[in-house]
Amino acid sequence: MHYGDHQLKIYQAGLKGARPRMPMRMEDLEHAAGQVLSKESYWYVAGGAGEVTMDANRAAFDRYRIHPRMLTDVSERDLSITLFDRTLPSPLLLAPIGVQSIIRPEAELAVAKAAASLNVPMILSTVSAHSMESVAETMGGSPRWFQLYWPRSPELAESLVQRAEQAGYDAIVVTLDTKMMAWRAQDLQNAFLPFLNGQGLANYTSDPWFREGLERPPEEDMWPSVRRWAEQFADPSKTWKDLATLRQATNLPILVKGIVHPDDARLALEHGVDGIIVSNHGGRQVDGSIAALDALPDVATMVNGRVPVLFDSGIRNGADVLKAKALGADAVLLGRPYIWGLALDGEDGVREVIQRVLADTDLTMALAGKANFSDVDRDLLVE
Ligand code: FNR
Known about the structure:
- By secondary structure, the chain is α/β, with parallel strands linked by helices.
- It has 16 helices and 12 strands.
- The strands form 3 sheets. It has an 8-stranded parallel sheet. It has a two-stranded antiparallel ribbon with strand order 1-12.
- The site of ligand FNR has 21 residues, from α3.
- Residues 44-45, 95-98, 125, 127, 147, 175, 257, 279, 281-282, 284, 312-315, 335-336 line the site of ligand FNR.
């Protein structure tokens, strides 16, 4: 079995008259999701801090072209990778995406089940609608990581990462690019910030330290929790030296997410991180910033294999996965596309979107002349 075989299933179903339930082209998939979501929810996902960086993220992929080679043996193919001593069947992880209850009530639980069924690690956001423990429960032994929005209070940070460790999460992803929320025109237009009506706060309202400081529990009155969340959510005063407190709080590998400058990659290494995620948050934070893919080669050169380098912001298809690998990524995170799958078909929709990206990666890799993902390198591309 290869991931590419997924296309046979679709063609075979076609013999019986069946057509894919969700549109195949990514633009059409997003459009269809837009038809079933409220305007507010759709734009919360589709929008950014403006459009310049979102467009640049995609345009950067277009500037690189794959240079296929012929008559290599690609009958047996291997997309597997190893990350932190765990072998994963593919180089894909699910990016942390918060507050999925604005898409569907099952939210992260549906995504977790889809991810677990394919052994694709899910990175659960701090601002999820279901607690990290309930998400873990649906996943059995399959891989999961926890993303930390690094709160103001060290006690809360410690409590969150220790709960993640207890609940079987394999790594902590600390997102550094969100010391505050950016100016987001569409969300401002809709005056829509779901946290303010209590959505996406399950990891906080289930936290003993967080609950202790509340005048009234969230079951009675959500407002004190929302207020405490707003105080705690982010801390603009944090600097590199604060990483030491997180390091002490957990034995799990710590990755930092949001690195786009090679000097920050150097600082991250100097401060003992175990992995780096090159990302500009899908263009949702600094509009006008460098495209994530354009930041990748210099970061990878700086890291020079000392820790894993992961990548997100713009991954839409198989060629993108291969291009990111060729430019130095060990693995990639899929973001918005799986949310469109969630919107259209719940758990099945998420699974289908993941399978499509993996099938496309497998087939494109083979057709470019490579049998093993681990052999994909800079020679695959021309600029
Ligand atoms: C995000 N992202 C994000 N990142 C993070 O570290 N914690 C979070 O809670 C969220 N929440 C979130 C919500 C929504 C609606 C989006 C679209 C994105 C960023 C995410 O992890 C990833 O970096 C981007 O989605 C990558 O860009 P693309 O490929 O989705 O365009």
